[in-house]
């Protein structure tokens, strides 16, 4: 089996691993990716039990928020550290920090401790996703990367479907602390496999980390996430706290952009935005995050409240969307690898995403589970065209020395998109449900949904039939406006897709990648 050589940034040639070694490394990377994606879904199922044991229900939201904030804020920094000092060391460090945070969270004796340890866990998680994508970018040329897209989509589907089921089972039989401890043996396997099999060139940058840029970006991202998390729930959108956070976030991000023009080793080099494809893919990634996480939030809610589905198997409710996404992602990857063409997938994916969201917006109290499953499959097909292609084109649009920064930027934009999607779609949903309940169920309906528009199964079962029917209509009305907004926002992704320039993927047939690669890119050459 022939080996290949890769031309590294400083001119040295580095032996590429044999395909068998690549598969072993990819297996370890997928385990690490699963850790990062599975965690919040497992922990979410255990939250009622955790509150019952530790108390502090008033701080409940911070268990998730602390993790999300730490993950989002650290993501760009991990990408830059990997570019400067070597990806293997940065990735292994992120796994160790994640496992330490998991162990400490499992041992927490109070809600304050749990929140602090979840932040530690989030710091590690920020490096997991970036590390996986950047290492894949190092090991596998973009032209060949499509073969592995189905594997990554499969991990995402497994996390979304299996998370609630695994979390519920562990909590019921082993206790909530094991929802954190379960990460330790899985993470240890990934740690050992990566240490033994992954061989990447060691790097040592002469520069130092841009601490000012890192601090400003952290403040800016934290402010954005808090605005989207608290706005309309903890605080009114027009409240002083939200306005102050918006002001702080804008000031920090403006300062960050200015600092990047002066820094010797900027956290986010602004020159990468000169690539049209990189900028367009960042926009598409933001929109994809906006739409996907909104769908993941509202579809189970609709099916439980309106269609009477069980909350226990909430992950299975998304099966039509996730299976469609996985199959289409696999097909898109194979076609991209065999033809080198990819522009068609963002365009078609955006059209399917718009269509799927519009169909979902038409659901009402009489929509069958079969039809809602068909609508979800359409949306999933759109996601399958977009999820991995965006990362592939993003990495193909920058020099090899910036692969980590590009990967972290794509991950960050998707994360911020999900924060905005959940916040804006959630605000529309809540307002619509409250309005309809007040209109159809009078003062009682208004009081029921005053604090939260989402009622659990126990609360629904106790409602008088007329009030329950009013709530079902209210939820279907709320999902209508939320998904309709999503379909309108998805039009931006379609516009961006039309302007993508089809640049040949590196690692293609002889000579193509040299012509296409940005100046200074490393390319894979057959020996």
Automatic annotation (TrEMBL):
It is found in: Cell membrane. InterPro entries: EmrB-like, MFS, MFS_dom, MFS_trans_sf. Keywords: Cell membrane, Membrane, Transmembrane, Transmembrane helix, Transport. The keyword Transmembrane applies. PANTHER family: COMD, MAJOR FACILITATOR SUPERFAMILY. It is a multi-pass membrane protein. Residues 25-505 form the Major facilitator superfamily (MFS) profile domain. This is MDR family MFS transporter. It comes from the Bacteria. The chain crosses the membrane at residues 21-47, 59-78, 90-109, 115-136, 148-166, 178-199, 211-230, 236-258, 278-302, 314-332, 344-361, 373-393, 405-429, 481-500. One of its GO terms (molecular function) is transmembrane transporter activity. Pfam families: MFS_1 (PF07690). The keyword Heme does not apply. It comes from Streptomyces tabacisoli. Belongs to the major facilitator superfamily. TCR/Tet family. One of its GO terms (cellular component) is plasma membrane.
């Amino acid at each position: 089996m022939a080996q290949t050589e890769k031309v590294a940034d400083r001119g040295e040639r580095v032996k590429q691993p044999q395909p068998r070694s690549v598969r072993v490394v990819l297996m370890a990377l997928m385990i690490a990716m699963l850790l990062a994606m599975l965690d919040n879904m497992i922990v979410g199922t255990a939250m009622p039990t955790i509150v019952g044991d530790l108390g502090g229900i008033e701080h409940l939201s911070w268990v998730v928020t602390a993790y999300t904030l730490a993950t989002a804020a650290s993501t760009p920094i991990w990408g830059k550290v990997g570019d400067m000092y070597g990806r293997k060391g940065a990735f292994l460090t992120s796994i160790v920090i994640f496992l330490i945070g998991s162990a400490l969270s499992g041992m927490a004796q109070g809600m304050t401790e749990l929140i602090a340890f979840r932040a530690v866990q989030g710091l590690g998680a920020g490096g997991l996703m970036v590390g996986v994508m950047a290492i894949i970018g190092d090991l596998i040329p973009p032209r060949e990367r499509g073969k592995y897209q189905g594997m990554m989509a499969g991990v995402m589907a497994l996390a979304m479907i299996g998370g609630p089921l695994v979390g519920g089972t562990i909590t019921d039989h082993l206790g909530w602390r094991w929802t954190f401890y379960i990460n330790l043996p899985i993470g240890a396997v990934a740690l050992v496999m990566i240490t033994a099999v992954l061989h990447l060139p060691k790097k040592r940058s002469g520069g130092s980390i841009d601490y000012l840029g890192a601090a400003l970006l952290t403040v800016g991202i934290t402010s954005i996430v808090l605005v989207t998390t608290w706005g309309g729930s903890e605080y009114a959108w027009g409240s002083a706290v939200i306005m102050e956070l918006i002001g702080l976030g804008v000031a920090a991000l403006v300062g960050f952009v200015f600092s990047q023009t002066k820094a010797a080793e900027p956290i986010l080099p602004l020159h990468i935005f000169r690539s049209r494809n990189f900028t367009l893919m960042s926009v598409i990634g933001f929109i994809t995050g906006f739409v996907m996480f909104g769908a993941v939030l509202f579809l189970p809610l609709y099916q439980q409240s309106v269609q009477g589905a069980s909350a226990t198997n909430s992950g299975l409710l998304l099966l039509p969307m996730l299976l469609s996404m996985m199959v289409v992602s696999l097909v898109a990857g194979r076609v991209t690898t065999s033809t080198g063409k990819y522009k068609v997938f963002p365009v078609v994916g955006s059209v399917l995403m718009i269509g799927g969201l519009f169909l979902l917006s038409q659901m009402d109290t009489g929509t069958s589970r079969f039809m809602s499953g068909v609508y979800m499959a359409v949306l999933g097909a759109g996601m399958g065209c977009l999820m991995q292609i965006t990362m592939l084109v993003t990495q193909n649009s920058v020099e090899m020395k910036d692969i980590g920064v590009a990967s972290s930027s794509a991950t960050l934009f998707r994360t911020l998109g999900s924060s905005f999607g959940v916040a804006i779609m959630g605000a529309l949903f809540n307002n619509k449900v409250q309005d309809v309940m007040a209109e159809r169920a009078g003062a009682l309906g208004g009081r029921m949904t005053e604090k939260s528009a989402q009622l659990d199964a126990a609360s629904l079962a106790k409602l008088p039939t007329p009030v329950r029917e009013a709530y079902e209509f209210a939820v279907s009305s709320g999902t209508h406006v939320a998904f309709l907004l999503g379909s309108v926002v998805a039009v931006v992704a379609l516009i961006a897709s039309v302007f993508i320039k089809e640049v040949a993927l590196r690692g293609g047939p002889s000579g193509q990648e040299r012509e296409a690669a940005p100046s200074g890119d490393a390319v894979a050459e057959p020996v």
